[in-house]
Amino acid sequence: MKNFRQFAGLLVLGTLAASPALAADAAAPAAGHSTSVPLAPDAPSSYTVQRGDTLWALASKFLSQPWYWPEIWYLNPDIKNPHRIYPGDTLHLVYVDAGTGNGQLRPEIRVERGNQVRLSPQIRELPLSEAITAIPYDIVAAFMSKPSVIAQEEADKLPYVVAIGNRQVAAGMDDVLYARGIKGAETGARFNVVHVGDKLTDPDSHKLLGYQGIYTGRARLERGAGSGKDELAKLVLTESARETLAGDRVLSENLDVPVDFVPHAPSRPVSGKIISVIGGVNVIGQYQVVVVNRGKSDGLEPGNVLGIWELGDRVKDRGPGGLTSSNQFKDPFAKSVALPSELAGNFMVFKTYEHISYGLVMSASSDLHVGDTVKNP
Predict the structure, then answer these.
(1) Which of 5-19, 32-46, 73-87, 233-247 comes out lowest in average pLDDT?
(2) Cβ proximity of 243 and 216 under 8 Å
(3) Is 0.85 topped by the overall pTM?
(4) In the chain, where are the structural domains located?
């Protein structure tokens, strides 16, 4: 939230496991000491990282509000990135003197490498693919591999299908596509083809933000465009979900969404709305991707956590009599009132454009919908 510490501290790992002070530090704050960081009521003094854990899940074990994670993360010399935590490592919750002069203790997380006690930094030999990520990467990868929203600034810049082989009007499996705008790709590179659908407009300003993207298929590059001004790239459809038409956009299959960010609150107030949910569903739940009408220009960045407020229903105010028989005749004339919005979940931003952002719903206590409000937690 505020006073996020930059990841710059140093601590020799071996002293963590060997130091007798660690056990004392790990004790709960003494009476009269306080901390402003919202620890979970059942926060453990230590936790050994398991395969499949995410940074969000780890933060949730220690904190009632996981976006406070930067407030308690303490760097170790060979963990300059909090994502370089691996299964088998142990996280310790310790308390240190905040140095405020009023006896306040500050909780911090320190890391002990799995099955190792050493007094100097060493190279970690596990592959980076074993390190934990902020959110479930497979969900983000599945979304990005078949994009369902095209930001306005992307729509006119993306490569597009100029024509289909054999003078066909629509293309399907194994058909040839000729596309303009594909540059620097090697033969055999994979692309997704997306049809530009309905407009996405900002419900507040009514400005155009982008378009619904309809996945039509996957294609393989058979021949690059060359250097001639009018030369076109040749692709072959290797997967077809629906007809591909001239004008459809061509996107690289390579993901450009790093997930080595840390959950944290936005640096300034943000308030917007959910304008789309990926997957064609009406009700939004945990681990679904949503699009909101706020982006880089509003101060959002990957890792930002926003609360989701469920839009309150409209109900009839029938007065003190309620639904009693004596009040039934009043029903057609009863005033309609809106119930207040209630906090019903939160989501983490993982990709931003100028005016929209993609986020993953991390928790939902009730059904969420397009139109619900998002703002600082």
Answers:
(1) 5-19
(2) yes
(3) no
(4) 13-130, 141-252, 271-375
